[in-house]
Amino acid sequence: MIIVCGPTATGKSDLAQIIAERFCGCVLSADSMQVYRGMDIGTAKLSLEERRVPHFGLDLTDPDEPYSAALYQGYARALIEKKEGEGTRVVMAGGTGLYIQSVIDDLRFPKGDQEDDPIRTRYMELAQREGAHEVWKALFAMDPESAETIHPNNTKRVVRAIEMHHAGESYAQRAHGMAKAEQVIPAVQIGLAMERALLYERIDARVDSMREAGLVDEVERLASRGFATSSTARQAIGYKEVLAALSGACTMDEAFEDIKRASRRYAKRQMTWFRRDGRICWIDITGKGAPQVAEEACALLASKGREDRRIG
Questions:
Q1: Nearest-angstrom CA–CA distance, 188 and 131
Q2: SS3 assignment, position 37
Q3: Deepest of 36, 131, 218, 298, by most Cβ within 10 A of its Cβ?
């Protein structure tokens, strides 16, 4: 497999599509929010007109339905097996590191990762009523080791740790085991990185373009269909901030500034995740256009191919 990864706004989708065109392949999205139907602008999903090769991993479920890395793992591995059988190269692209790792590494998920859970509902409702920190405090009382590994504002992950505690597992110990998981699907991973200040400028510009493209209207349409009550998708950056503005909690200008800040923080967390994976081959895209990045990526893939043939 070929994987294109890295922080948000680095051009992963564009590069993956170019690579897929050159290898007569398809693109598999590895983005935990692009799986939701109707969440298009805020997740930077390529439009149908922009897709020059077949794309998968998009629009898999409705925003009010739960989704997880375990479900994605099953979906993606089945797709990869099918496409390989057809002689089609799969190019995975995205910034959700856990989704990528769940596919190529031997990660085992307990049953609770694949279905809704009343504990999840209980603590997500607590977060809505009393704030994220109250949920984190509840986790700390149960499992301080796991609580100390998760930011208090990361409600989704905090709640997952609570679910695991009730199932007799430790989030912290699972995370430690993930770092040692054996790779089961051969892959070349290409990471895209750039100077932080320039990346933040790109993120801000992307958020501005999302506003111009109609993100507010998109959120209003989703809210009219019950989006505001979904337990997972409503936590997506861009959507929760606009929902707050629509409820009167802040102005729309303030909401978009919050989106920019949250997106920059998310990019930092993504880099922390990917930098610890020594298998990733990094390309510095600072000051480079898409054609130059594509040439570097294809040269890297060619060199990896020659290396693999020498080893074989």
A1: 41
A2: coil
A3: 36
Residue 49 is classified by DSSP as G
> What predicted TM-score, i.e. pTM, was given to this entire model?
0.83
Helix axes 155-166, 171-178, angle to 10 degrees: 100
Cα–Cα distances (Å) from 137 to 144, 159, 173, in that order, read 9, 11, 19
The Cα–Cα gap between 164 and 146 comes to 10
List the single range of 45-59, 116-130, 276-290 with lowest mean pLDDT: 116-130
Strand residue runs (E) in 69-127 = 90-94
Between CA 207 and CA 72 the distance in angstroms is 27
Query: DSSP letter at 183?
Result: B
Alpha carbon separation from 60 to 31, 115, 241, 257, 288 (Å, rounded): 11, 15, 24, 30, 33
Rounded Cα gap, residues 3 and 100, in angstroms: 8
Name the residue among 34, 61, 54, 174 with its Cα closest to residue 115.
61
| 274 and 4 Cβ atoms separated by less than 8 Å | no
Taking only the tens place, the pLDDT of each residue in 39-60 is 999 999 999 999 999 999 999 9
